Amino acid sequence: MPVPVLTTTEMRSWEQATWDLGQSESNIIDRVGACVARQALDCTRPGDRLLFLAGKGHNGDDVRAAAWHCTGRRVTLLAVSDPATARSLLASALEPPPALIVDGLFGIGLNRPLSADWIRLIETVNAAPTPVLAVDVPSGLSADTGQPLGTAVRAAITLTVGAPKRGLLAPAAAPYVGRLEVATKTGLAPCPVTTALSWTLPDDFHEFPPPRPPEAHKGKFGHLGILAGSLGYHGAAVLAARGAQRAQPGLVTLRPSPDVYVPVASQLQSVMVQSCPPESAWPTNLSALLVGPGLAAPSLPSNVASEVRSGWRSAPWPVVADASALDWLPPGPTQTPALRVITPHPGEAARLLESSPASVQSDRCAALRALSARYGNCWVVLKGRHTLVGRNSDAIHVNPSGNPGLAQGGSGDLLAGFLAGLLAQPSLLQDPLQTIRYAVWAHSQAADDLAASRKAWTVEELAQALGSSRPHP
Questions:
Q1: Confidence band for 280, pLDDT divided at 50, 70 and 90
Q2: For the chain, which terminus, N or C, has the lower number of CB atoms within 10 Å?
Q3: Span 398-413, average pLDDT
Q4: How many C-alpha atoms does 439 have within 13 Å on its Cβ side?
């Protein structure tokens, strides 16, 4: 199940509910320490030296507990109460540099600017050529606003306890948080708080998509139509088709602009490629439609924009609109209850809202709801760091997977094709939110799997890996 994204006050309420049920703080601290230790062991190799920085509060207690669980590593534990005194000790502990620093100086309780001595201590940590694992929040960062309180530890990974804190998702927090992971097996009571923003867990897709029945045939898994590709942008059509193939719908029909039919068709085998004539009707057995990837050339047939608008308004099957097609969508409700999905990045979202990317990024949830309301309460995949999935009338879900390697041309075309290929399958439309969330998670998790095995990878390699990821135990 997804976990709620919480404020500091809501997290304190959850902790109090745990104590009220008789759970001891010492037991929770030990379990959190074990979670931190597992993360630290995953980041290092046997024999490596780890430096643990433990402050005076419960965050420091978690780090002290973690140090006991880090078997097979050489552990240096530095208890920090006075930053001025600790600075020289820290400098000594950083020579030679350890393999990992575990930051437990401050937790979510910090709500005032740091003193000059604390700032200097944290700057010493940041100057070290060593990755940092922050426990719960990077020390010095406000858990509610995501703003540094003078300065903050720049972590490579933040392992937050129980649930993400709202400030950790703020765009301003990104340089300090690094990769955000959630420790869920901490012994806390069931969370008594429900919020409008939820963090997706990989375990949500443990049995998804469901196994196909042995008697299945291609007629059971839908027929996806794709309107994509134009002169200079034919690769987008190919990538969208390959993404769709990874979702394994029964059939895929791709219609690119006539002037790129040959290069598109020559790269695809099982996809049916048909040049898009001035007037055309989609097959009657179509079950979903993707429009937009690579439709950016001035030489497009004159009817393409009107076909996108017509399909969005009245097509009886799910329609996914991506890239150039977003600018052609008519605002307002559609003439059919069939599913509608848009997949903008922040720049595209800003154009649709007649705003700016900075405004979209300043409140991504509000931007998602505004987009959904503008286009008939459609589903929105607002791409970016921690891609959001939701619509105006429902909770919003935060995707946990992905890395900066996705910031290359073509990765969005793959996602659009993969998503549309899943939504073309009638059995996966029973829970469209689950299907959309899975598409986003699987696409980004494939990028994480690639990044774990090689320093550099291409979108073509991502196309090969797409759909093969499974939740890690």
A1: low
A2: C
A3: 96
A4: 35
Give the whole-angstrom CA distance, residue 431 versus residue 183.
Answer: 27
Q: Quick one: residue 126, left, alpha or beta (phi over 0 = left, psi -120 to 50 = alpha)?
A: alpha
The predicted-structure confidence for 315-348, as pLDDT tens digits, reads as follows 999 999 999 999 999 999 999 999 999 999 999 9
Q: Which domains does the chain have, with CATH numbers?
A: 3-191 (3.40.50.10260), 218-465 (3.40.1190.20)
Confidence of residue 279 (pLDDT cuts 50, 70, 90): low
* CB 401 within 8 Å of CB 441: yes
Q: What angle do CA 258, 262, 267 make, to 5 degrees?
A: 130
Look at the pTM and tell me if it is higher than 0.70: yes
